[in-house]
């Protein structure tokens, strides 16, 4: 009886050990980054200045981010200042853009891609003048957004994933923030 109980106890311990290893190896399959965390990371990279063909200088302030889960994009609204030889005076304005994200494994960053410029407005400028500047401003806004690292995943963010042989995959915008899927690393 004692040997049978020992055998059952040992078998149960072995089974629980295997189950624990299996649970540990599966680990989390995604990482969620809140809007607040993204906003703080982006704010550190602004203001930014751009020159467009030495005709227009644009300064872009830190954007206010929003989550657009229906589009799987992030929205960004920001203030800008425009000056330079192309303008008779300095102007302030607003820009509204949205973009998707891609993962760059080289520096573990989430970067903007698929940028849409939804609106650009310079306060006090006539519609015809604004229409002439639209392409120059859109170019400066694209550079401002596409060159910015929206978020850089830290070693802490990916420590467990690295241990389990996982890496970031698809990025999905949800109402809770960004969900970064963790997928098996390619050999």
Explain this structure to me?
The protein is of the alpha+beta class and 187 residues long. It has one domain (30-184): Bactericidal permeability-increasing protein, domain 1 (Super Roll). 34% of the residues lie in helices and 42% in strands. Strands 2, 3, 4, 5, 6, 7 and 8 form a 7-stranded antiparallel sheet that branches. Strands 1-10-9 form a 3-stranded antiparallel sheet. A hairpin with a 4-residue loop joins strand 6 and strand 7. 20% of the residues are buried.
Layout of SSEs?
Elements: H1 2-26, E1 30-33, H2 35-43, E2 48-52, E3 56-60, E4 64-68, E5 73-83, E6 91-104, E7 109-122, H3 127-146, E8 149-152, H4 155-163, E9 166-174, E10 177-184
Principal-axes geometry comes out as elongated
Biggest beta sheet summary: 7 strands, antiparallel
What is the N-to-C order of secondary-structure elements (H for helix, E for strand)? HEHEEEEEEHEHEE
Structure summary, number of beta strands: 10
CATH fold name:
Bactericidal permeability-increasing protein, domain 1
Oligomer: single chain
Structural class: alpha+beta
CATH homology group: Uncharacterised protein PF07273 family, DUF1439
Q: How many domain modules?
A: 1
Total DSSP helices: 4
Portion in strands:
35-45%
Uncertain regions: pLDDT < 50 for 5+ in a row?
A: 2-25
Cα distance, first to last residue? Answer: 50 Å
């Amino acid at each position: 009886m004692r040997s049978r109980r020992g055998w059952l106890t040992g078998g149960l311990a072995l089974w629980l050990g295997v189950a624990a290893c299996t649970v540990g190896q599966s680990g989390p399959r995604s990482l969620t980054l809140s809007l607040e965390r993204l906003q703080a990371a982006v704010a550190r990279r602004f203001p930014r200045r751009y020159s467009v063909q030495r005709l227009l200088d644009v300064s872009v302030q830190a954007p206010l981010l929003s989550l657009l889960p229906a589009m799987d994009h992030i929205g960004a609204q920001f203030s800008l200042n425009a000056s330079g030889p192309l303008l008779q005076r300095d102007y302030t304005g607003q820009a509204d853009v949205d973009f998707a994200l891609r993962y760059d494994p080289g520096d573990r960053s989430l970067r903007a891609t698929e940028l849409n410029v939804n609106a650009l407005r310079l306060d006090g400028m006539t519609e015809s003048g604004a229409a002439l500047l639209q392409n120059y401003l859109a170019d400066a806004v694209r550079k401002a957004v596409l060159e910015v690292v929206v978020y850089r995943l830290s070693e802490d963010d990916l420590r467990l994933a690295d241990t389990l042989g996982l890496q970031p995959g698809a990025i999905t915008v949800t109402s809770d923030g960004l969900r970064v899927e963790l997928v098996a690393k390619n050999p």
